[in-house]
């Protein structure tokens, strides 16, 4: 049995369905706003712009900014590139805020309740605190604490995020497990001394689409097919 005191969760893709949630919401929203676009194409491009935006901040190329600002900048560029007509400032703001209200994967909420009965649970996300609080309210995520990138003024995979969240929980790194569907995130956490759990989310980027290769067996402390399986593995 793995012994840890706290579980930190990557959020976008691991706990909530960013792609399916955004496409569904935008499809409803277009009728209100009368804005036409290839929403799956735009959403995919928007997500692919995400790591590049974070990297510019992490390297000092761009001054610190919360995720909403970075997402807004990417959206404005992509709207021009893809010829999205009618996207004014108010509409762009609405689209950015859709990242605050993403739906959980079907088993996420029940599994988090199981895990919370035994462990301290919290998101460790590149989203900011206000975004994560709103997401928790709308999706029913039962966090004990919330760690956004704005607390540390660093984005993952900077060590300040993993070590900072562990310290704020009063834990040594080895007493904390990062739970994520992204191997690169888990590799960075492991280098900081955290335990790791890989969660398979084959539909995160759409059926048959893979952004990071599936990790080889035993690369991480645990490898599960969902959060319910994680709860069972940890005896919850």
From TrEMBL:
Record-linked InterPro entries: 2-HAD (IPR006328), HAD-like_sf (IPR036412), HAD-SF_hydro_IA (IPR006439), HAD_sf (IPR023214), S-2-haloacid_dehalogenase (IPR051540)
Annotated Gene3D superfamilies: 1.10.150.750, HAD superfamily/HAD-like
Record carries keyword Iron: no
SUPFAM superfamilies for the chain: HAD-like
Native organism: Paraburkholderia youngii
Keyword Transcription regulation: no
UniProt cross-references to Pfam families, sorted A to Z: Hydrolase
Name this polypeptide is given: Haloacid dehalogenase type II
Keywords, ordered alphabetically: Hydrolase
Entry coiled-coil feature ranges: none
């Amino acid at each position: 049995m793995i012994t840890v005191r706290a579980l930190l969760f990557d959020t976008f893709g691991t706990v909530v369905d960013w792609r399916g949630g955004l496409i569904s919401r935008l499809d409803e929203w277009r009728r209100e706003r009368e804005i036409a676009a290839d929403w799956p194409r735009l959403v995919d491009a928007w997500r692919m712009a995400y790591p590049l935006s974070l990297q510019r901040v992490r390297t000092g190329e761009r001054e610190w900014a919360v995720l909403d600002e970075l997402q807004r900048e990417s959206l404005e560029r992509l709207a021009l590139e893809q010829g999205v007509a009618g996207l004014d400032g108010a509409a762009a703001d609405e689209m950015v805020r859709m990242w605050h209200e993403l739906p959980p994967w079907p088993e996420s909420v029940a599994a988090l309740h199981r895990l919370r009965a035994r462990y301290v649970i919290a998101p460790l996300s590149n989203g900011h605190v206000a975004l994560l609080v709103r997401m928790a309210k709308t999706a029913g995520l039962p966090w004990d604490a919330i760690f956004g990138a704005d607390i540390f003024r660093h984005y993952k995979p900077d060590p300040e995020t993993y070590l900072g969240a562990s310290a704020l929980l009063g834990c040594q790194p080895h007493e904390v497990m990062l739970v994520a569907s992204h191997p690169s995130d888990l590799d960075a956490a492991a280098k900081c001394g955290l335990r790791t759990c890989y969660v398979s989310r084959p539909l995160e980027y759409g059926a048959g689409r893979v952004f990071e290769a599936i990790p080889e067996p035993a690369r991480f402390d645990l490898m599960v097919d969902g959060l319910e399986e994680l709860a069972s593995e940890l005896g919850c």
